[in-house]
């Protein structure tokens, strides 16, 4: 009866019956790296400067619109009148700075209850 080790040796011998030594996989394939360099160059060349300028102008337009909307929102909030007592009440109850209390009151049109509910959520 054959031992387990004998069977393993026979299987290995059958796999290498061609007589050629098996090649080990290469750790680094320089051909793939060269190909990557070529494709990177081609991709960069495809992007023209006019496309880049168009994209940058779209981004700039979007940012300016967002800034303008934010400034308009701040102007609207500044117009809301709030009471000093309400600010102090929120500051004392919630233990928050004056600026946060004022902002919350302004966002909720001076309503103390709505401002407190928003701050607790």
State the main characteristics:
121 residues, mainly alpha, Huntingtin-int_K, HYPK_UBA, NAC-like_UBA
Detail the topology: elements first, then pairings:
Blueprint: H1 4-15, H2 30-46, H3 49-79, H4 84-94, H5 98-107, H6 112-120
Structural class: mainly alpha
Query: For the terminal residues, how far apart are their CA atoms?
Result: 78 Å
**Average residue-wise pLDDT:** 79
Strand content: under 5%
Report low-confidence residues grouped into runs of 5 or more: none
Which shape, going by the Cα principal axes?
elongated
- Quantity of strands, as a count: 0
The H/E string reads: HHHHHH
Query: Major β-sheet, in short?
Result: none
CA radius of gyration is 36 Å
Number of helices: 6
Helix content: over 70%
């Amino acid at each position: 009866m054959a031992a387990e080790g004998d069977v393993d040796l026979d299987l290995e011998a059958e796999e290498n019956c061609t007589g050629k030594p098996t090649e080990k996989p290469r750790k680094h394939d320089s051909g793939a790296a060269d190909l990557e360099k070529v494709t990177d160059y081609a991709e960069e060349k495809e992007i023209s400067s006019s496309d880049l300028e168009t994209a940058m102008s779209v981004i700039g337009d979007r940012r300016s619109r967002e800034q303008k909307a934010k400034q308009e929102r701040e102007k609207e909030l500044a117009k809301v009148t709030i009471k000093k007592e309400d600010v102090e009440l929120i500051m004392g109850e919630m233990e928050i700075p004056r600026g946060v209390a004022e902002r919350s009151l302004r966002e909720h049109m001076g309503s103390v209850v709505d401002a407190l509910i928003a701050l607790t959520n």
